[in-house]
Specification:
Blueprint (H helix, E strand, L loop, with lengths): L1 E7 L5 E4 L9 E3 L9 H11 L3 E6 L4 E6 L11 E4 L9 H8 L13 H15 L9 E5 L3 E6 L6 E6 L6 H11 L7 E5 L4 E5 L11 H15 L5 H7 L6 H8 L8 H16 L18
Parallel strand pairs: 1-5
Antiparallel strand pairs: 1-3, 2-6, 4-5, 7-8, 8-9, 9-11, 10-11
Helix pairs in contact: 7-8
């Protein structure tokens, strides 16, 4: 899979590949179905182009805007040069639409300066807790619904998660589910409602395909326990949840944003509800008892 990289500096200039004589957006090949939209991508950029960047905004599933971290225009690899946006106009429809937008993106983490502000918040909480940071934060998830950073400390990793305004009650939901003691949940250590982000302790994230069959079976058993919360919908709604349709959330993310999974999720959820009403159908081996399913 080939990724199209839109690398911009603090002044808005775009890094262009000059190998063909004319300015062109750089491209980078990756194994797998989709290129990474996280620190794995910025690691490659640093290794191949000598630039320190952060993922700013995925524009679709293969085109991503990266922001050069240095305030001064960084020195790049041979064969590349910085040009104004006009030099690459017409090379990427999604980039042209981004340039023509009249409003900032709904997701704060798609705006320049968000990463630095999040890092400053993490530093303050680490210091307040008497911990020591062991390295820079890494971008673990960066898409239209949320952003997740992982920060190493002397007492284990911390995760910062930021969400859209309508999802800001997520830490309340997490704490409520943790109180049910059905399965382990993240321990939230700090919250900033104004920023709609919070910090949580790492509780042993493991690649499910890297463990033994016995361990994987134990993980699936735990998943079954977590799914038992589907029967507690009334309790969740009474406690913390604001009802919202997935298609409404898709509208909040923004119709001018191409990297938007919500319409697909809405369609999947609708099919799941139809399947739940059909006694002859199952979804991934599961079938809700009764006439309807709670999502």
């Amino acid at each position: 899979m080939e990724a199209v990289l839109v690398i911009v500096d603090q002044g808005g200039a775009v890094l262009c590949d000059m190998a063909g004589g004319d300015p062109a957006l750089p491209r980078m090949r990756f194994d797998g179905r989709w290129p990474p939209m996280d620190s794995e991508l910025t690691d490659r950029v640093r290794h191949e182009l000598g630039l320190t960047t952060v993922v700013l905004e995925p524009l679709d599933f293969t085109t991503v805007v990266l922001l050069a971290a240095d305030r001064a225009r960084p020195v790049s690899a041979d064969g590349f040069a910085w040009h104004g946006h006009d030099a690459v106009t017409g090379q990427s429809p999604v980039l042209d639409r981004r340039a023509a937008r009249s409003r900032p993106p709904a997701s704060d983490w798609f705006r320049p300066g968000w990463f630095e502000r999040a890092e400053s918040y993490i530093d303050g909480e680490i210091k307040a807790a008497g911990r020591v940071r062991l390295g820079p934060s890494r971008q673990i998830k960066h898409w239209s619904m949320s952003a997740v950073l992982r920060t190493p400390t002397d007492r284990g990793d911390l995760y910062l998660k930021a969400v859209l305004p309508r999802l800001a009650r997520e830490p309340d939901i997490t704490r409520y589910l943790a109180s049910l003691r059905i399965a382990p949940f993240a321990t939230i250590t700090a919250m900033s409602p104004r920023d709609r982000w919070w910090l949580a302790e790492d509780f042993g994230a493991v690649d499910g395909w890297a463990v033994s069959k016995e361990q994987r079976r134990a993980c699936l058993t735990q998943l079954v326990m977590v799914q038992e919360t589907i029967h507690r919908g009334d309790e969740l709604i009474a406690a913390v949840v604001e009802l919202m349709k997935l298609i409404e959330l898709a509208d909040i993310v923004g119709p001018d944003h191409d990297f938007n999974w919500l319409p697909m999720t809405y369609g999947w959820g609708r099919r799941l509800l139809h399947a739940a009403d059909d006694p002859n159908l199952t979804v991934n081996g599961w079938r809700e008892q009764g006439s309807s399913a709670a999502l």
